[in-house]
Amino acid sequence: MAYSAGFTPHPKVSYANAAPTGTASEAEYLEIALAAPREVAWLRERLDESLPAGLDIVDAVEAKTSGFAERLEASAWELRLEGVDPAEAERAAKVFLTTSSVEVSRETKKGIRTFDARAAVTALEAADAFASPSPSGGSDALASVPCAILRLVVRHLTPAVRPDDVLSGLRSVADLAPPVPAGVTRLAQGPLDERTGTVTDPFAPDRDAATAALPTAAGQQAAAAPEITGQ
């Protein structure tokens, strides 16, 4: 790993758009500058081996283009709503989407700030849901509790609209109030396809650049230390 110069060198690692505290994620990214060229697959394996179980490096590419952080334009999230009927979640999602503006307030470093949560949401829908076992156990089918799943795509704006802001908006405009805190997982983050409203692969420009460089790069070694972008 490369380090900065000066009296207090720091490792050249940067984390892009980390998930909010208290949420799970399957799509976090970091950039690492290396002191010497390394094979990307080898590096991914070594990084993965050094991390605790459950924290996995699933992919890595050599950065062939600049501006990786700017590509993270939106995030796809899954909200697990225990105790909420799926039909009620679907109704609330439709109300939210048909409301032109949904103002929510949140405590920030500069005090209470009010902003429009609806403006950042490009997609919101109820996914397949199911009944979860009752916390009390037992085999009685009536003891199961409903569980709704919402999937949403949120554009990265300033101030950032978080999943809990969307839940606050659903509560205010559609009276959707889960009896227990929602389970929140980020499924993806990357460029936003405006046509489909989906989040695409942020590694695509680097993969394309690497493929295009193959015919001319045979037998050549990069003069500069590579920067590796990993997920």
UniProtKB/TrEMBL annotation:
Which residue stretches does the UniProt record annotate as biased composition, category Low complexity?
210-225
Pfam families reported for this sequence = DUF2344
The ranges of region (Disordered) come to 185-231
Q: Per its UniProt record, what InterPro entries does this chain match?
A: DUF2344
Describe the location of the DUF2344 domain by residue ranges.
Answer: 1-163
What is the protein's given name?
A: Radical SAM-linked protein
Lineage runs: Bacteria, Bacillati, Actinomycetota, Actinomycetes, Kitasatosporales
